[in-house]
Design brief:
The protein has about 140 residues and is an alpha+beta fold. The protein folds into two domains: about 30 residues; about 110 residues, Immunoglobulin-like (Sandwich). Helices cover about 25% and strands about 40% of the residues.
Length: about 140
C-alpha cells in the first residue's frame, strides 16, 4: 500500500466514523413525551398521544385511541387547557380514523410544551362542539 492509498483509507474510515456519530446524535436528539388522553362527555374514548421532536423544528404527533364507537374524530392542538380551551385550533392534526392518527406539526417539542396548549379530539366532524378526549401538553 502506498502512502497515498493509506491516507485515502484513513480518510474513508474517518468519514464513516463521523457519519456514525452524526446518526447517533440525531437519534439521541429525538426526544419523546407520551400523554394519556382524558375521556370527556362520557364518550369512552381512551388512549395516548406521543409527541416526538424530529430535531428540525418540527414534532411528530401520533394519537392512538380506543375510539369507542367514534371511527372518525377530528383532532387539533388548541391554545389553552382542557378546562379552558380556545375554540380556534392552533395546529390541525390529521383525523383519528379507526383509532390512529399521525401528523407532523411545524413546532419543536420544546415549543409545544412551553406554551399553554391542549390536544383534543372531537366526537365527529358533525359534532365539533362535543369533545371526546383531551390532554394538556405540559
Amino acid at each position: 500500500m502506498t502512502r497515498r492509498s493509506g491516507r485515502a483509507a484513513g480518510s474513508v474510515a474517518f468519514a464513516a466514523a463521523l457519519v456514525g456519530v452524526i446518526v447517533l446524535a440525531a437519534c439521541a436528539s429525538q426526544q419523546s413525551r407520551t400523554f394519556q388522553l382524558v375521556t370527556l362527555n362520557a364518550t369512552g374514548v381512551t388512549g395516548t398521544a406521543v409527541l416526538t421532536d424530529l430535531g428540525d423544528g418540527s414534532t411528530r404527533v401520533i394519537v392512538e385511541v380506543d375510539p369507542a364507537g367514534h371511527p372518525h374524530m377530528p383532532a387539533h392542538i388548541h391554545p389553552g387547557t382542557c378546562v379552558n380551551l380556545v375554540p380556534q385550533p392552533l395546529y390541525p392534526l390529521l383525523p383519528v380514523i379507526d383509532g390512529d392518527s399521525e401528523t407532523v406539526v411545524p413546532k419543536s417539542l420544546a415549543d409545544l410544551l412551553a406554551g399553554e396548549l391542549a390536544l383534543n379530539l372531537h366526537v365527529s366532524a358533525e359534532e365539533m362542539g362535543t369533545y371526546a378526549a383531551c390532554v394538556d401538553l405540559n
